[in-house]
Amino acid sequence: MPFWDGAITHILAPLPRGLETLELSAHPDTRVHPILGQLPQCLRVLNLQHVAAFNSALGPLPPSLTSLSLGPRFTQPLGELPRGLTALTLGTVFPEHHFSHYDHPLGRLPCALRVLDLEICDNFNHPLGCLPATLRKLLLGWTYNHPLQTLPPALEVLVLGHDFQQELQPHLPDTLRVFRMGECFNAPVMLPAALEDLRIGDSYTHLLDLRPSLRHVYVGLSYPRPLPPLPQTFVSDVLLFRVVD
């Protein structure tokens, strides 16, 4: 079996012209490097999230691509993202690879994008620009610290990274179900009535109206405000839990 830069290579090129889904995985302790060649023009799903050693340029992404997931060591520029892309995930959660080295601007985000997951991109700190109105989930990495333009009206999940210190629009989207602050965030916000999952960061000091809809709450150690009683809730020194029936 051939080797490439100390990794075992699997030559898959040329890929079938009619291929629509390509998902590869390898044991995290094995440095497997697939050789893909040119991606088929009708490819819709490319998932290399669980191939830790993969770090080759993908070339022009097929216009038909709707879902793209890449592993922790992928560092190649992606170029222009396909207009129909609905999900982009960078990095993976192998126990020993809980990170992503990706550190290139993403350019204009596709107007169809619904999921942008950069949560374990510790190095990524490039402005995202205009967020698509279709976006439902936005997860930012540790170092991301740029202003977010108007949040999409149907956003359901917003996860801020550790270093994020920018202001957000005061009224978060009504559809937001999950809001997790980073440790440095300290800007006033109004929580939406539908919120179910809230994480209050260690630096946050502003009064929050905790909604009855909340089912999971984490309260930072330094939060100086009294917590109102919530139905079916258990309070400890650090965490506030609502019991789920």
Automatic annotation (TrEMBL):
Pfam families named in the record: FNIP
Coiled-coil parts of chain: none
Source organism superkingdom: Eukaryota
InterPro entries from the UniProt entry: FNIP, LRR_dom_sf, STK_FNIP-Repeat
Protein name, as recorded: Uncharacterized protein
Provenance organism: Tribonema minus
Lineage: Eukaryota, Sar, Stramenopiles, Ochrophyta, PX clade
